[in-house]
Write a structure and sequence with these properties.
The structure holds 2 protein chains of 2 kinds.
Chain A (H helix, E strand, L loop, with lengths): L6 H47 L4 H49 L8
Chain B lengths: L1 H6 L2 H8 L12 H21 L9 H22 L6 H13 L11 H23 L3 H24 L6
The chains are: A mainly alpha, B mainly alpha.
Chain lengths: 114, 167
């Protein structure tokens, strides 16, 4: 028979495991968002200037305007994909900590099922 | 144990009752990440070579380059899409949880990098068609480039982000 679970200690371990992942990943997500927002704004400005000056021809006008919408959708889709990876990492980190604690308390090496 | 469960957020509890580690996104594939780097080099070289604009009568000189880049992009898209899909039941649970808390999700199940790669291919195909028909102006090249850079950033960021522990 192993020791009982120290709830306070386990809570801290879970918090640490989750926040370590969150801190790292949020920095990446923020950097990505900042770059994308700036680049999409610059692209909109370039397209508007090009249309006004006639250097973006009739052949490409509609394509570039429509693409601005598609680009924004794709940005949101990518951001959601990145967030899912972060949720997965937090999930697995928490499961790892809890499984470890239960294993120690019960004296049984619990398999972590992937 | 009751106290422990109380302490955990409902979301964490949802994770625990699933009793296993999970995968919500495709596995990292170094070949795709490397392919993306190679494709971005090809693309940037092409945009540098056409930055002053092009004339339709010299299109033949660029035709093979367009075909090579578009072919590589389409092959990469196929690779990015063909990885085994992660468990949708777990993904559904996460989406349900978020929806219950008022966070709308528009999860189409599409791999973000594959979507971005498709858009790069569409962009370059458009550039090729216009180049062939009437040539492209310097501003149009800049706009095609800007669009491609945005999609490349999406694809590269996502693929590199998939490199997590255990991959």
């Amino acid at each position: 028979m192993g020791a009982s679970i120290d709830v306070s200690s386990l809570t801290e371990q879970i918090k640490t495991a989750a926040s370590d992942v969150a801190k790292r990943d949020i920095a990446v997500l923020k950097g990505f968002s900042d770059r994308q927002i700036k680049a999409i704004a610059q692209q909109a400005q370039l397209v508007a200037t090009g249309i006004a000056s006639g250097q973006i021809t009739e052949e490409t006008q509609e394509f570039f305007l429509e693409s601005l919408k598609t680009m924004a959708q794709s940005f949101a889709n990518t951001l959601q994909g990145l967030a899912k990876v972060t949720i997965e990492k937090i999930w697995n980190a928490v499961v790892g900590v809890v499984w470890g604690a239960i294993g120690t308390a019960t004296g049984v090496a619990l398999p972590v099922i992937a | 144990m009751k106290r422990l469960v109380k302490l955990l957020s409902p979301f964490t509890f949802l994770l625990l009752i699933s009793a296993c580690t999970t995968s919500l996104a495709p596995s990292y594939d170094k070949a795709i990440a490397d392919g993306l780097v190679a494709a971005s080099q090809q693309l940037m070289t092409h945009f540098a070579a056409t930055s002053a604009g092009t004339a339709a009568d010299s299109f033949a000189q660029r035709d093979a380059t367009y075909s090579s880049i578009i072919g590589n992009l389409d092959a990469l898209t196929l690779q990015a899409k063909s990885r085994p899909a992660p468990s949708s039941s777990v993904s559904d649970k996460v989406n349900e949880y978020l929806t219950r808390r008022g966070i709308t999700t528009s999860d189409t199940g599409d791999v973000p990098s594959a979507v971005a790669l498709e858009q790069i291919s569409i962009t370059l195909t458009k550039m090729r068609d216009v180049d062939k028909k009437q040539g492209v102006t310097a501003i149009e090249v800049a706009a095609f480039r800007g669009q491609v850079v945005i999609y490349l950033d999406q694809a590269l960021t996502y693929e590199n982000f998939l490199e997590r522990e255990g991959n």
